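Propose amino acids for all 238 sites.
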């Protein structure tokens, strides 16, 4: 009888530990959205064809497609590899306290390994491979006390080295638009970086095949979902 009670107590304790792990708060994250580059069409004269039901539905469908994020875009940060979800969002565990990031846009990288190991020391890019580099830094206006992201384009180093703590977006630079300047934000430790836009010429299938060859050098991310009364939150666990 006592043994049975002890087993029940141990089971209850184990269940409580598992429950506490399940509801443990997620670590701070870095996230940003990848959206289709907005297309501007020349104005057309108003005519009867514009009000045809088929044309109306076509316009509505195009608007709906443009409002959804770009799927199938890969990015890397801090040894992790991720791709955009159905909303065009990329999420990484935050690995640094300083809100300053180097963003590299290129479609092909190579690992530089530490001697005698399979650990990556940094990434390199061939001289004939296109690459663009940006700096993303959170700052606070001294007068208004408002926080903002400042994005600037910086020259690519002649050595073409990408540090591990950098954000890498796998695409040809000509197919990606990174808005420069200021974007308002807040002091929240969950960092939401400015939105990045992809152009129609982006070949997501080819990029995915190139990324798959380097998958062994990255740690997997395990998304989990937590539901409460008002919302469902996606948690990222390394």
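Proposal:
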């Amino acid at each position: 009888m006592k043994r049975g009670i002890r087993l029940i107590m141990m089971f209850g304790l184990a269940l409580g530990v598992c429950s506490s792990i399940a509801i443990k708060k997620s670590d701070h994250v870095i996230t940003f959205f990848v959206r289709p580059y907005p297309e501007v069409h020349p104005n057309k004269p108003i005519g009867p064809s514009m009000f045809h039901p088929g044309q109306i539905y076509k316009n509505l469908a195009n608007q709906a497609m443009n409002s959804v994020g770009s799927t199938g875009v890969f990015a890397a940060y801090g040894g992790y590899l991720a791709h955009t979800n159905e909303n065009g969002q990329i999420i990484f565990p935050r690995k640094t306290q300083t809100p300053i990031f180097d963003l590299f846009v290129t479609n092909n990288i190579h690992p530089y390994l530490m001697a005698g190991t399979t650990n990556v020391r940094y990434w390199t890019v061939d001289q004939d491979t296109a690459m663009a580099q940006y700096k993303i830094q959170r700052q606070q206006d001294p007068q208004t006390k408002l926080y903002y992201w400042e994005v600037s384009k910086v020259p690519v180093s002649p050595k073409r080295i990408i540090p591990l703590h950098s954000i890498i977006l796998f695409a040809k630079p000509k197919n990606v638009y990174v808005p420069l300047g200021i974007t308002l934000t807040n002091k929240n430790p969950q960092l939401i970086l400015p939105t990045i836009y992809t152009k129609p010429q982006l070949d997501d299938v080819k990029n995915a095949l190139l990324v798959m060859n380097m998958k062994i050098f990255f740690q997997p991310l395990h998304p989990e979902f937590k539901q409460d009364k008002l919302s469902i939150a996606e948690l990222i666990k390394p």
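Residues 25-39+49-237 form one domain. Residues 2-22 form the longest helix (21 residues).
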